[in-house]
């Protein structure tokens, strides 16, 4: 059995940080709903990619992840 270090006992428990999701956006600001009402021309590349990806990660919601991917790879290819 592993002995706990003195410092371990003094550390507060790590809490999961709340991370907003697309469902936290007002209904009419969500990418999928805007696509249905306004068409693809009204959405950014990040919005369209977020729709394709469908879900994010524990670290990034889908909109953040789409933006990071576009930044990392220099946008969408021609």
TrEMBL record:
Designated name of the protein: UPF0758 domain-containing protein
PANTHER family noted in UniProt: DNA REPAIR PROTEIN RADC, UPF0758 PROTEIN YEES-RELATED
Taxonomic superkingdom: Bacteria
Pfam families given in the database record: UPF0758_N (PF20582)
Cleavable signal peptide: none
Domain UPF0758: 22-76
Species classification: Bacteria, Bacillati, Chloroflexota, Ktedonobacteria, Ktedonobacterales
InterPro entries per record: UPF0758, UPF0758_N
């Amino acid at each position: 059995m592993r002995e706990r270090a003195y410092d371990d006992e003094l550390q507060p428990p790590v809490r999961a940080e709340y991370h907003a999701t697309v469902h936290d956006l007002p209904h009419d600001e969500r990418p999928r709903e805007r696509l249905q009402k306004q068409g693809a021309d009204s959405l950014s590349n990040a919005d369209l990619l977020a729709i394709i990806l469908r879900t994010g990660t524990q670290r990034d919601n889908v909109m953040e992840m789409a933006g990071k991917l576009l930044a990392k790879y220099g946008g969408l290819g021609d």
